[in-house]
Each structure stands twice: as C-alpha cells, then as structure tokens.
Amino acid sequence: MSERNPPIDGPTGSISGSEGDDELRFRDPEKADALADRLAEIGDELDDPPATVMHVCGSHEQSIAKFGLRSLLPDTVNLVMGPGCPVCVTNMPEVDEAVALAEKGVTIATYGDMLKVSGTAKSLDDVRSEGADVRVVYGTQDAVELAEDLDGEVVFFATGFETTAAPTAAVIRDDPPENFSVLSAHKYIPPAMEIVAEMPDTEIDGYLAAGNAAIITGHGIFDGLVDRHGLPVVVGGFEPLDILAGLVKLVEHVRDGDQTVENAYPRCVTRDGNRVAKEQLWDVFEAVGGEWRGIAHIPNANLQLRDEYAEYDASKRFDVDASYLREQSGSRLLHDCICGDIMAGAADPTDCRLFGEACTPADPVGACMVSSEGTCKIWHEYGGRPDL
Amino acid sequence: MCLGVPGEIREIEGNEAVVDFWGVERRVRLDIVGSAVDEGDYILNHVGYAIRKIPESEVEETMELFETMLDADPADMLTDDVMDELEANAGAPTPATSGGDEQDEEDLLDELGIDV
Question: What is the pTM of this model?
Fold first, then answer.
C-alpha cells in the first residue's frame, strides 16, 4: 500500500513539512522540477500577482491532489477548481424528478456517482432503501441491456458533460427498446465557463480547459470565450507533467496579456474534435438554459432531448410531478453547504464548516462530497483536513 | 467519469469491437469513434464507447502514461475511475473474461504492477 500525499493546505497548496517532494510519484521528477522552476520565474514577471487560474475537470483535480501539484506552485499562481463535476451541478429538482419516477415504480438506471446526490428531500439511495428499483450502471449500453431484460419501464438518469452525452446520443439513435427512455441531466461546460469567468468573487485570469471533453468538442469551441471575456485558455491533459506544462503556458499568456486558445494536449485534442460524436450529440440534444446547483442560471448549458426524440424523453413520457417532494424537508445541514461557492472557485472545501465533520464521503451532505469528481471528495480522499 | 482508457482492438463485429485492456477483454461500441478503425488499432474507451482512435505514433506514450497514472494503490480514486470505465462493458463479457469481474480487476492490477 503506498502512502497518501501529505495534506494540502489551501489554494496555493503549501505542503506541511519539507518531505513532500519525496512523496511525489512522477514518471520524470527532473522534468517536473524544471517546469515548477519555470513557473516560479514567470510568476515573478507578473504585473499583478497572483494569477488565479481555474481548471474545470474532476480528473484534473484528482491528479493535482494525488500528485500534490499545488505544493509545486509558487505563491504567485493560484490554482482553483471550477464547475468541473457534472454530478455536483445537477440541480435538486432534476434529482427530484428521478426520485419521483422511482417512487412511481419505474426502474431507474444511473451512474454510481448519482446515487447519493440529494434532491430537495431525498436521494435515489434513500428511495432505493425504501424499496424503489434503482440500479447502478457503468454505461448507457448497460441501461439498454437492462431494459431488454426487464418487462417494465427503465429510465436512464443520464449525467455527464459532452464526453458522456455523446454515448447517450448514440444509444438513442440506435433504436433502443420501447421500454427504455432517458431523463437527461447532461451538461455542456463551455457556457458555464463563460458565466463563472464573470463572477465577481472568482476573478479568474485564465482557464486550464479539460483535455478529455475537448476530445469531442475540439479546442476551437473556446474561441468565443476568449473573444468575449479576454482570457487565455490552455487545453491540458491530466497526467501530472501535462498539467504543469499547461500551467506554464497559461501563466505565460496571463503575463503577456494574450487572449488566445492554446492546445497543450495535441496527443488527444484537435481543433475540430470528433466530428461524428459532435454530429450525434447535437442531432439528439439541444442546449437549453437551466440552474446549475449552487452556481447560477446558465444559458445553453443543459442538454435536453430534441422534439424528434421525444418518445425517448422520460420527462415527456411520464409527465412527472415532483412538486410533492419540495414540500418535504431535506437535511437542515444543506443550508450550511457551500458547494456552490466551491464550484465557482470562490471558496475551498476547507472553508466549509461541514467538511470532514458533518459531511464525509460515507455520509455526504453536498454533492461535491458525493462524486469522485467533486472537489470536496477529492480533497478528503487525498488530503483530509489540513494540519493546523 | 471524465477519463478515457486506452485499449487495443482484437475483433470487430459491426458497430462493436472486442478490445484488450492490459489483458482484459471488453466489448466497446464504435458508433462515435469518428475514424475508420481496424483490428490492431488502439482506441480510447469512455463509458463503453470508443471516443477516439489513438494515432499509431502516440500509442506507446499513451499506454506508458496510463501505467504511470495507475501506479498507485487499488483504493485510489483515479484507479477506481479507470476500473469503472472498464466495468462499463462488463454487461457483455467475452468468453475470455467469463471468470468474473473481480478476477478481471485482479488481473488488471497485476498487469500494472499494483500490489493488492
């Protein structure tokens, strides 16, 4: 069993004690050190330090926390996680709809991360323990196979950004069984990045965009964001050296005031992305406005099935009324949850008084402690509470 | 959920491929891979769908990177997410992997030199 990284401490991530470097498991520690030195040099050349840069990917945060990358950053660079966890931004009324369907006797199939995410009054895990039929699936295809095996209605409660929405689209286009439908909580990340870029408490100087989502969309998708908000965007991979290299390029652009998109992950990302996946995605889904939990109403960032595919849209097939759930009271602790601020990059998990105490992965309050892509769960897993 | 996992195509039947992930074979859909693929090509698998053909020149580096990333204890979150990706195709195990999911995970961890 290898040792965990030492605790992370705040957004600049100073590691307690000097033994931290020994714990880093880089493929090439010399390269990592060289990149960190370069980052410190560029940081010293900033007009208005610190540069606050945001990434929007749970896998980025996992890698950053796992390899203790914040400990390598100079004080002049502040790295925060934005709304990069699709499960976490799923709004309570969206969960309520799935809960109401489950209580009505419909079989709900969903990704494991979604199970403990609370709706207004309860989660799918709660109704499952009360006897509802809620199944965890690992992919859309599994949900279709479940529908083939069962006589009753199977609703796939679908979550995830464009990378996961494209497979859902492919399944819907592939003539699924009649008793199969989709309740879409799929999200589209670029419009959310635009909203968060303008939030006064966040003050972002640049984005490290998620390489994996950009495999589908291509990095050309960020041109508009750069034009409208005057920020540099660098698309980066999730391996530790990829992230450090991406940060070097990004902070260079911040220093020079560049408004540009740079692809620091050419191994996987092209300008146009995966054309076939994009065509299927936009054939099945359209982007509509909606509330992202705790953050804001975001235009064009929720993916809804188009009318042509209405027969597979669970929200139309079942005419769900979840309003009765809003009259029941949920956990009082939810009022203290600051997931929204954390996902907007305005607070760290350690700023929350519930973190690691009343809210843990085993008994989560907020969605950020539920998903393996949630900031709180990741910090809890790799850092726990900082040494004070 | 946002990670993809690379593997090598062993067989193709229509829109479905049998893909080898470090010795573990899984079925992967090819609907949205976006390029012509053949046996012997490497793809990136995400929730049971190939989302990209990995160019031949990048195969070796990509596989190495994944092995580095996963060089951790099996309870690790990143390793866990990758396992989920592989499980995405567990609904249709091929005869070669009928030994069950637990065995598959052990084989994979073993292959990656991860001590269980």
Answer: 0.85
**What CATH number does residue B29 fall under?**
2.30.30.140
Asked if the interface predicted TM-score (ipTM) of this complex is over 0.85, the answer is no
Range of the domain at A101: 92-189+277-326
> Does residue A23 lie within any of the structural domains?
no
Instruction: Please check whether residue A341 lies inside any domain of the structure.
Output: no
Average pLDDT over residues B74-103: 55
Residue of A nearest to B74 (CA): A1
Look over chain B and give the mean of its residue pLDDT values, rounded to a whole number: 75
Which residues does chain B have within 8 Å of residue A378's beta carbon, measured at their own beta carbons? 77
CATH code of the domain containing A172: 3.40.50.11740
Mean pLDDT, rounded, for A245-266: 95
Please tell me the distance in Å from A27's CA to the nearest CA on chain B: 6
Ordered DSSP codes for A186-230 = EB-HHHHHHHHHT-TTT--SEEEEEHHHHHHH-GGGGHHHHHHH-
Q: Give pLDDT tens digits for A287-310.
A: 999 999 989 999 999 999 999 999
